[in-house]
Amino acid sequence: MSETLKEIGEPATKEAKQALVVFTPSGRRGRFPVGTPVLKAARSLGVDIDSVCGGRGICGRCQIQPEIGDFAKHGISSRAENVSPGNEVEARYAKKRGMKADRRLSCQSLVQGDLVVDVPADSQVHKQVVRKRAEVRDIELDPAMRLHYVEVEEPDMHNPTGDLERLIAALKSQWSLTDLECDLRTLQGLQQALRKGEWKVTVAVHRGQVITAIWPGFQGNAYGMAVDVGSTTIAAHLCDLQTGEVLASSGVMNPQIRFGEDLMSRVSYVMMNPGGDRAMTAAVRDALNTLTEAVAEEAGIDRTLILNATFVGNPIMHHLLLGMDPTELGGAPFALAANSGMTLWATELELNINQDGRVYVLPCIAGHVGADTAGVILSEQPHLAEDITLVVDVGTNAEIVLGNKQRLLACSSPTGPAFEGAQISCGQRAAPGAIERVRIDPETLEPRFKVIGSDLWSDEPGFAAETKKTGVTGVCGSGIIEVLAEMFLAGLLLTDGTINGEMAAKTPRIQPDGRTFSYLLHEGDGKGDGEPELRITQNDVRAIQLGKAALYAGIRLLMDRLGVEQVERIMLAGAFGSHIDVKYAMILGMIPDCPLEKVHSAGNAAGTGARIALLNQKTRDDIESVVKKVEKIETAVEAKFQEHFVQAMGIPHTTAVFPHLAEAVELPAPSVKAAPEGDEDGGGRRRRRRRS
Amino acid sequence: MSETLKEIGEPATKEAKQALVVFTPSGRRGRFPVGTPVLKAARSLGVDIDSVCGGRGICGRCQIQPEIGDFAKHGISSRAENVSPGNEVEARYAKKRGMKADRRLSCQSLVQGDLVVDVPADSQVHKQVVRKRAEVRDIELDPAMRLHYVEVEEPDMHNPTGDLERLIAALKSQWSLTDLECDLRTLQGLQQALRKGEWKVTVAVHRGQVITAIWPGFQGNAYGMAVDVGSTTIAAHLCDLQTGEVLASSGVMNPQIRFGEDLMSRVSYVMMNPGGDRAMTAAVRDALNTLTEAVAEEAGIDRTLILNATFVGNPIMHHLLLGMDPTELGGAPFALAANSGMTLWATELELNINQDGRVYVLPCIAGHVGADTAGVILSEQPHLAEDITLVVDVGTNAEIVLGNKQRLLACSSPTGPAFEGAQISCGQRAAPGAIERVRIDPETLEPRFKVIGSDLWSDEPGFAAETKKTGVTGVCGSGIIEVLAEMFLAGLLLTDGTINGEMAAKTPRIQPDGRTFSYLLHEGDGKGDGEPELRITQNDVRAIQLGKAALYAGIRLLMDRLGVEQVERIMLAGAFGSHIDVKYAMILGMIPDCPLEKVHSAGNAAGTGARIALLNQKTRDDIESVVKKVEKIETAVEAKFQEHFVQAMGIPHTTAVFPHLAEAVELPAPSVKAAPEGDEDGGGRRRRRRRS
């Protein structure tokens, strides 16, 4: 028996026989009088066991597993008879809701002798919600909205307190909740709920402070919604606030697209159309309600049980969601109306969840770095890392975060829409039929590719049949990255980004195109209305070069500020980041050199950040304080940015070296074409673009 | 020079010449370097000087008066040249807004030498708002909603904080306001206001916590509304929150009357008509908006400058105003939905004041003792009294408060509608043409009276001409009290309330009326459709007896509980209390014996309480804590109440003595008629009635 573990519990009395109880996995132990409910013993030791009904055998959340046997390491002989047999309450619960044979309700089980009790993960209040990726921490469940079942004293005309005041008193005595307030709308239904529930009700309490909903009797389900308001799509996850589980996910197009494809065109719309901001606010809120309906239906739940929602979005989406005119974000100094996180009533956003549901909108960081980046930070936790960590969320604008637990820097860089297939002659959005993978044979210079919707390479048998339905319609962002990188590796593309016309001698796919050359990727079917011819033109290369140079320059600027020459870990966030092969991104010089095994795709990290803020209320305070400490860099006014940008136009870079990449890939020697082309869209013509 | 007054101020330095400044009336004094603004000197000494603009010479609230001369008691020779001459800013203010010749703006006046400075009452933040009645304390101005003019830093893209965060920082540095929040709706207009005002704005801050409104530039006006929601009439006072002055008062009929004349009939309506509570809530809120328009128009102000409103009302009005079903208040145990005071958004009550205006609803005390009684306590302050103080608010129910600074008790007693002229054969509401004063000659037994609308007695010349327009149409509450009391003094009414038939021998005005008698008060014009005949019947007397016995019994019950046999001070609140002659009320035994000079009419004390809560935020906390400590007595279930009630049926009382009253009035000896009348509506048939 370990002497280091502290033994506490009920004080020994002459009358009461004491028993030793050890809880696993925590190892907490104490002596308790025979007859003590196991739940009570656990609580007095600070063992984390959930309960919504407060020990009345209704909710079933406090299940434990008595471990029977001799446990030398605990010094306990834990026998079956050392816990009371199941009573009627427990039998009723098991019959109604089902319970595993070896499980017991800890509130109904009494200590009868020495006992080892296991608390399964699903019975813990602060359970870990597991994330699939190995490189990130799990989420500790601690939702802002909690349910409490409570028995309220009936009114007494000799001591005429209000029903609300008696409810508050009951929540204090039964749940140790103090200084509670109550929403007026909830109060309007309070008297009926208390009487219908015969003075037993379940209440939802927001952040331990405000009673936001009330139901007669026992109500064990509470849901939350984590929403990423992107400029193109709005995505929502419906979560069970008791388990942390994602019950449904859905996405809709952002209907603001009809006001403008990208963010800047939406801001222009507002500037030119008085009331345009209100129209866009109404549009996004409508879409949110459609989405709410969709996830509630998918999960088969009543949307009034959605009690909490969290939102992330870039600054313009953030402002439009909140009904704030985004005009100021359209020009320097890019002033946010507010940058702090906000807790609001759902009704303030006209969101059709529970009428007193609460909404939390994550904080913005700067005029170009929004609540979406705050979500990315919450998901990827660079502020907790030992390693110098780079997190990049690539869109029309790229948001870049760099640093570790000591310092964290952030900026936004205007990468333009090329990575999403726009401004590329053969570009298209990622959809079935789009080329997403490309390989070029270094000898024959012949390409092969994969399209979305098929697992076959284009040179494999059956490819034509499998892609007959979709056809080969264009090249999406990841396909563009790969074809350019492969062209570079094959010598078709020079360091300065010129398509090498000299290679026309070696392959008919290099073809003159005015004063420049292009690479024929796919012949098409030769009919004008059928499968198109897909070729990579010099202009396509220039568009990607502009984007990747802007991204690299932004990263490099942060590295300068942080005083580092190397990053130790890279996370690529966003839809684009999830689909590109990081090796090709590095070959093109989108990201700086780094061991390839240290580069990960983070998926929709912004949306994950919203989910973390939904499931764990403390992370809201965390992110607010992290965001305050982030050093914000405005690339638009940094002289050094232009310099870095010009240097970064080369592939992978005009001057920087990529030693880790060179270990994995055989990079061609630096090459340049003799004369620069004056007629191309070079690095000079630039304007700020927003992520769309 | 007094050595007891502490001298503080800026620390003396070798360079700066120091001057002694004394502020009156506070007597605070200190030494300051020559050149210090007088406002700054005052603030550093804690002298109470107002300022909205923060010392920029815009608001004119910091005016002071330099006192010129030799002040031996201060040891100062205060010369004209010891304060700097008026500068341009001051001249501009004086030209634009006007300023008395001897006044100066303290923010623009610099100390040049020893000085005596008077701070006039209207320049104090915490000015006293004078109440007309000598027996109550003045109100110290300290409104929940305050205006602050502030200069905000412009956005800087190198330090990209939100406009809100910079506003909050400015309010912290310029006004020492910390931990401020901001309403979303206010935030939605923030950016525009800041730019329109060129980074100078005025904000309204609620209770030092929430920014609730914002205006570009300087805005010096803020208004509030104190509302008494009575079951018959709703009355509002519009107040200037900077001066405490009442700018406009108005009243409307409570439109809920169409659902039921008195409170119980309205509760019945709700019970019998699903949704009836919502209809009544909508009706009262509509009326409130009509009233808001009316007072804003009367005062000539924009209703969006009404930033705060306070409400009192009985429990049923309180619940209906708040949108809470009053059904539970219709029967035992008379459970309130909530009894605490509530701070709400005006929009939650659909009140058309400023969109982010705040509303405070005073707390209720018990199921029959509402926020109106809380208002009465705030106005009459029995909880601060040394004397045993009785406060009575008479309506269909009477609310009774008894006690002093040690203990305070409250109850409600079902007095019925007789005091308001209902259930009285000749009764009517107080309106022109109603008899309100009555005298009966003890010799001739002839009556004379006054009607509302004329100052003449009915036996004075010109009475007929002056009352020709209104006629003599009935007897209002105060008239009923007087005629019964005069009948008693003249021997026409016996101690047990019987109209003395034996007196028919002495006057033709005593006339048989079935088995009882009546007293002919006014002959009328003899035409059925003209001026009616007005007589006091035995049933009329019984109705008043029931009401006054209930009132007295409630008071007596509280006296028992408090353990006193005498009250030392009486306040009569409410419209009825304002109009009755307290002597007659005591002759009838409505209130217990007390020196007549200690009985006062408090007017609409509930409404005054609302005004106090509007003008002084601390009183809200005060009343919440007083209300918690009040001992609540439920008369309906007190056995002793019935006993007291029966004893109190006599005039003035069957057993109690009235020594103080007897000193002022010659009371007849106790008398009884031989046989009780079995056919009359005696004390047995009773039901709880609500004030209407």
From TrEMBL, chains A, B:
Q: Which Pfam families match?
A: RACo_C_ter, RACo_linker, Raco_middle
Tell me which residues make up the 2Fe-2S ferredoxin-type domain: 19-123
InterPro entries referenced in this protein's UniProt entry, alphabetically: 2Fe-2S_ferredoxin-like_sf, 2Fe-2S_ferredoxin-type, Beta-grasp_dom_sf, Corrinoid_activation_enz, Raco-like_middle, Raco-like_middle_sf, RACo_C, RACo_linker
Q: Which GO terms describe its molecular function?
A: iron-sulfur cluster binding
Q: Which PROSITE patterns does this one have? A: 2FE2S_FER_2 (PS51085)
- Region Disordered, residue ranges: 669-692
In terms of SUPFAM superfamilies, this protein maps to:
2Fe-2S ferredoxin-like
Q: What is this protein called?
A: DUF4445 domain-containing protein
